[in-house]
Amino acid sequence: MNNRLRVAVIGAGYWGPNLARNFRSSRDWELAAIVDLDRARAEKVADSVGGASVLTDIDDALNDAGIDAVAIATPARTHHPLVMRALRAGKHVVVEKPLADSSEHAREMVDEAQRRGLVLMTDHTYCYTPAVQKIRELVADGSLGDILFIDSTRINLGLVQPDVDVFWDLAPHDLSIIDFVLPGGLAPRSVAAYGADPIGAGKSCVGYLMMPLANGGMAHVHVNWMSPTKIRQMVVGGTRRTLVWDDLNPQQRVSVYDRGVDLLRQTGFATDRREATVSYRLGDTWSPALAEREPLGAMVEEFAGAITERRAARTDGYAGLRVLDVLESASRSLAETGAFAAARIPVTA
Amino acid sequence: MNNRLRVAVIGAGYWGPNLARNFRSSRDWELAAIVDLDRARAEKVADSVGGASVLTDIDDALNDAGIDAVAIATPARTHHPLVMRALRAGKHVVVEKPLADSSEHAREMVDEAQRRGLVLMTDHTYCYTPAVQKIRELVADGSLGDILFIDSTRINLGLVQPDVDVFWDLAPHDLSIIDFVLPGGLAPRSVAAYGADPIGAGKSCVGYLMMPLANGGMAHVHVNWMSPTKIRQMVVGGTRRTLVWDDLNPQQRVSVYDRGVDLLRQTGFATDRREATVSYRLGDTWSPALAEREPLGAMVEEFAGAITERRAARTDGYAGLRVLDVLESASRSLAETGAFAAARIPVTA
Amino acid sequence: MNNRLRVAVIGAGYWGPNLARNFRSSRDWELAAIVDLDRARAEKVADSVGGASVLTDIDDALNDAGIDAVAIATPARTHHPLVMRALRAGKHVVVEKPLADSSEHAREMVDEAQRRGLVLMTDHTYCYTPAVQKIRELVADGSLGDILFIDSTRINLGLVQPDVDVFWDLAPHDLSIIDFVLPGGLAPRSVAAYGADPIGAGKSCVGYLMMPLANGGMAHVHVNWMSPTKIRQMVVGGTRRTLVWDDLNPQQRVSVYDRGVDLLRQTGFATDRREATVSYRLGDTWSPALAEREPLGAMVEEFAGAITERRAARTDGYAGLRVLDVLESASRSLAETGAFAAARIPVTA
Amino acid sequence: MNNRLRVAVIGAGYWGPNLARNFRSSRDWELAAIVDLDRARAEKVADSVGGASVLTDIDDALNDAGIDAVAIATPARTHHPLVMRALRAGKHVVVEKPLADSSEHAREMVDEAQRRGLVLMTDHTYCYTPAVQKIRELVADGSLGDILFIDSTRINLGLVQPDVDVFWDLAPHDLSIIDFVLPGGLAPRSVAAYGADPIGAGKSCVGYLMMPLANGGMAHVHVNWMSPTKIRQMVVGGTRRTLVWDDLNPQQRVSVYDRGVDLLRQTGFATDRREATVSYRLGDTWSPALAEREPLGAMVEEFAGAITERRAARTDGYAGLRVLDVLESASRSLAETGAFAAARIPVTA
Fold first, then answer.
1. Domain check: are B88 and B13 in the same one?
2. Which residue of C has its CA nearest to B287?
3. Chains touching chain C at 3 or more Cβ pairs under 8 angstroms?
4. Which residues lie below 8 Å from residue C39, measured CB to CB, with a gap of 6+?
5. What is the CATH number of the domain that holds C45?
6. Which of B283, B287, B288 is opposite residue C289, by nearest beta carbon?
7. N or C, fewer C-beta in 10 Å, chain A?
């Protein structure tokens, strides 16, 4: 028990209870406190996880030398001030997505953590699902070869959100996942967004994101609040194999196809008949068994690992920043009526 | 027998035999001749349909006053000269797609037919499938309401074509269908194309087409030669209902969902809570039974109908021209590295 | 509040908390007490639903004149004595399935309730799902016509149970549903069971139930603990339409096919060519929207309705008895190496 | 060309042209003649395959010493006399299924071929599809382990046949496949059949076949003319892996699941907690790429191989006989109102 890290969860709203429950059941963590301005709300969360200290003043947590880390689950606009305070108090921080309300704020947070040698992690929960973990692994170990294209679809009937368009509502999931599985993270050469608002909602309800990749490949995201059928599918095409992730097929979420188009590159002599060198592979399909594990459990474990091993978390602050940067580029592209907007993509430290 | 129209099929290659067979089995048509420079090839087609006259000189058909119409199934680059000769000889003409090798040529053909009061039809075969006929009918009778968005996906492992990219190879199907089902035809405000050539084939192997529609809606086409899974799906979202066409599900190709997002427009007074006026419909799904009929049979019937009723064919020359115009706009957009290209869309006569 | 019925939940194990929660949130019920020999366990349940009286002696509930009904959620072997005591104390009773540990016991319970004019209800929860409610409605209103055959499949990798075979583990779901949707309830002319124990578990792990129906039709149930793929599907074939319920397809659970085989019955004269009078219908498919509602909520509402309207519950004691009778017939059939066992089916009161 | 075997196809009706075409395009065979009482019909078939001798008297083929083999594609009732004549004339014979109109006749044919050392083959075409070839291979090489159960479903809206019930119409496919993939062939300990005739067609329109296997396992076949949805699926459960063949999913026809229920057999000491020794495997799924090949092409190649290598064909006369024997047992079982009928299964030579 002595060796456990101690964490305070800041914010007892929608996401806070999930964080509290997972910290509580982790072998790496001791849940030190639940912090909320509303004591009753904090107490309810504490009760639901079998008891925990309750605080209404965040400074009581930040000034407590026995607390190693804080988990921020407050509204997005408060992330920047709270995280800056926590970092300055020497705490490691994990933040519910989005990392901040602007990439400028996010960059300050990332810089501050870097300067102080503290872990700043973005809670991109989806990245800790067994399916996405497996996809990252298959990309990393070369099973897919070089990544040629990624096509992600996330469509459904969705409530039109009051404050954000369909890109900001749904695409963060796709973008954080693409960032997680690509070896160099999400670093498109540019970002173009096309949106449609056919019902006059005052914002995009149907959206397409085009992100040319460095190697000539393409990442594409389709998000849609107006589809009568629900689709959550991502295709990751590689030089060796192609992977399809169908999140709505619990019996076969991840399929790896040993199929593809090969371009046999001529080395000895020139040829006019380039097309003659293209061929198919029609090999087996393979669907790996996936572990059953709650993603947030894996997330808090990774947070502990990053702290104790003094390394960046897998979904660190830079990951959160890259996602914000693409979303802001998409908004600029959209504002220019779909014109191509050059993304100012940060480089991972 | 006397009242039947008489047709000559020009070209005995890949598509000619299919045309000949369908003209032969139609009650509207008499198959007057098969024309090909290669007599043996023409004779083989004539035999396969139970006998027909064989000609090697197209002028023998064009000068035959007993022949009402010709069906052109020759390479695309020959369409313009052959169609112009046939129209000038007073023949009605149906042309295998693409209508011509350029929109400029297509426009001349359309104008010539218009001037002479002759039927010029594009053989957009897919439009005559029972599924697409039903979709057109449901749009036309108001079952879907106003069209808000169309999303079409046509992906598979496909042979990299020597002479065309993935847009010109696959998108004509999607574009001709969208043109067919939209009340005013395919008339995007603009066209943007994004392509990827991740294998170094020298042309786009993965392609996305963005086509904002006049009413604020969007048509989007995804074509892909590199997908290990085959998808042929079109979603047509309307104000009243949304339709999904899954061409690979023979048991339920067309589904009509009485589901959607409604925006209740305020008329009496202003409101700050715009989002409060958005609501869902979650009604029944309905899948119409589709007739079983060979599309080409319906196509030749439509050709006869247009001629005898002195009206434009459903897939007339303008339809072929609109499709060519979008494809050319896409190529220009692509050449400008994905920049937005204004389409010069012709107006239907 | 005064008009609410008052209920005590007996048993605070696996199912009791679900019952308690649903009685608590119902407008028809007041949750009067949680009863369990283990006070701590009862208190935990009471806390989880926001507080309720806790009793450790069932007689305290049965002797309380202010309590109208009890819900029994104790092990099956205790159902008979507890229910008999409750009925003799004048309480209405709902019992977790199976109604009893034998049809003989079940019959005594049914007779006792009948004699005293009390409601005895079996908690066949599945019957209160929106899908099954809809199926019952479509059968009852004649949409399907007369029922010709029912084929139910419920297969998956399942834990081999220590005390029951695959029939007693899984088939009660199918049988209670078939009983619920058939107008006259589950009344097969006979029951034949075939089981296989290919892994030497000492009991059937794969099972088939054949139940010829009175009208020449057939009900068939396939249950299987050893299938690598999960299937939960029921086909209900009728003279007018056929319904398919696929419980693992949340986007289209219930489909009604206006397709079938018709036998045109000759009335005026004899014919040798009987087959000539068979024809197809290939009409539309229709998938009704289903309400979203927790089944147990609908179950406790039905329990209240039966009491206040002084009528039998939809899943009354006879329903529980009929299911037990078929299961016992199946066991006898199995014991005779698959020989046909005549079912002794009780008649609904 | 000299080394090719020479074959005559007897019967120019429905199946004869398919046989003729495949013999014609085979490297192993020379198509010597088409035989039919109706010369015009025979000539039409000969033309359709690019020409072949036409005979109207079968004796002209049987007396021709240059003809090695005959392929019989005539009505089932004529198989016995024609095959017996062909065998007595020293010809190898392949027969369209069913092998004969009774198992008694089939047995005579098998015995005659055996006595004369000639190949007698049943054209169980389905066994030569790439999917079934792969299943046989995976069973034979031990990939699935011992076979525990087989569950086959073949249902659809089907025309009620004038002369046969649903068992004789559809089950021969399932039975010939099961016979082909099981190492010892189809040798059930017994056969029980249950049929339903809910529309008064005078014969079973819905049918179930139960076939307990020697090792405690079970084969089950469900055939149905009245299903609005088409299903063609076979599950083959083994001790090591389980295979699912979904013939209507061209993208993944065969899936091999490394999942199952294991019973850890205790060897050292007795145990009361038998259930504790049951466990799951939840491993990967694998879908082998299947060759694309016309089944009849593989069938005529096997026929040639059996003749030249002087061995039994994979689907020999005994296979045809075993299928007939099960069908006759099913009919007897059905006649006894579903009572268990002992199958008289022949032993393979």
1. yes
2. C285
3. A, B, D
4. C54, C56
5. 3.40.50.720
6. B283
7. N
Residue in the block written with tokens 């100012």: A344
d(CA A321, CA A100): 8
Per-residue DSSP letters for B303-338?
Answer: HHHHHHTTS--TTBHHHHHHHHHHHHHHHHHHHTTT
Peptide bond into A98 cis (omega under 30): yes
Chain-chain contact of D285 with A252 (C-beta, under 8 angstroms)? yes
CB-based contact C285 B284, cutoff 8 Å: no
pLDDT the model gives residue D198: 83
Q: Please tell me if residue A331 touches chain B, with a CB cutoff of 8 Å.
A: no
- Determine if the peptide bond prior to C162 is cis (ω within 30°): no
In chain C, residues with a C-beta closer than 8 Å to the C-beta of A251 are 229-230
> Given CB atoms, is B292 within the 8 Å cutoff of chain D?
no
Please indicate, yes or no, whether residues D190 and D311 belong to a single structural domain of this protein: no
- C 6-65 residues inside an 8 A Cβ radius of A: none
Task: Find the residue in A nearest to B239 (Cα).
Answer: A199
Going A143 to A146 to A148 to A154, the CA torsion angle's sign is positive
In angstroms, the separation between the Cα of residue C170 and the nearest Cα of chain A is 20
Q: Would you call D199 and C239 a contact, using CB atoms and an 8 Å cutoff?
A: yes
Give residue D160's pLDDT band: very low, low, confident or very high (50, 70, 90).
Answer: confident
Query: Are A287 and D289 inside 8 Å of each other by CB?
Result: no
Domain containing residue D299 = 5-126+295-315
pLDDT one-digit tens code per residue, B130-170: 999 999 999 999 999 999 999 999 999 887 887 889 999 99
Q: How far is CA D136 from CA D143, D173, D177, D305, in A?
A: 10, 15, 9, 18
- Answer yes or no: do C245 and C117 share one domain: no
Summarised one tens digit per residue, pLDDT across range C71-125 is 999 999 999 999 999 999 999 999 999 999 999 999 999 999 999 999 999 999 9
Residues in chain B within 8 Å Cβ distance of A196: 148-149, 212-213, 216-218
Per the CB < 8 Å rule, is C287 touching B283?
no
CB contact, 8 Å: B193 with chain A?
no
B270 has pLDDT over 70: no
Residues B312 and B290 reside in one and the same domain: no
Contacts of C50 in chain A (CB under 8 A): none
Position B344 in a domain = no
* Chain B residue closest in CA terms to A235: B227
- What is the per-residue burial (b if ≥16 Cβ within 10 Å, else e) of B321-343? bbbbbbbbbbbbbbeeebebbeb
* A107 three-class SS: helix
Q: Does D159 touch chain A (CB under 8 A)?
A: no
Element (H or E) spanning A92, and its range? strand A92-96
Phi-psi region of D185 (alpha: psi -120 to 50; beta: other; left: phi over 0): left
pLDDT tens-digit series, residues C147-178 = 999 999 999 988 778 788 999 999 999 999 99
pLDDT at A272: 42
Q: What is the rounded radius of gyration, in angstroms, for the C-alpha atoms of chain B?
A: 22
Domain at A131, CATH number: 3.30.360.10
- Does residue C264 carry a pLDDT above 60? no
| Contact across the interface for A229 and B239, Cβ inside 8 Å | no
ipTM: 0.87
Q: Based on the domain organization, do D252 and D214 belong to the same domain?
A: yes
**Predicted confidence (pLDDT) per residue in D260-315, tens digit:** 776 654 443 434 444 445 677 788 999 999 988 999 999 999 999 999 999 999 99
Which positions in chain D touch A252 (Cβ < 8 Å)?
Answer: 285
Instruction: Quote the pLDDT of residue D200.
Output: 81
For D168-197, how does the pLDDT look when each residue is reduced to its tens digit (9 = 90+)?
A: 999 999 999 999 999 989 989 889 999 988
Residues of chain D contacting C287 with CB distance shorter than 8 Å: none
Q: Which residues of D touch A130 (CB under 8 A)?
A: none
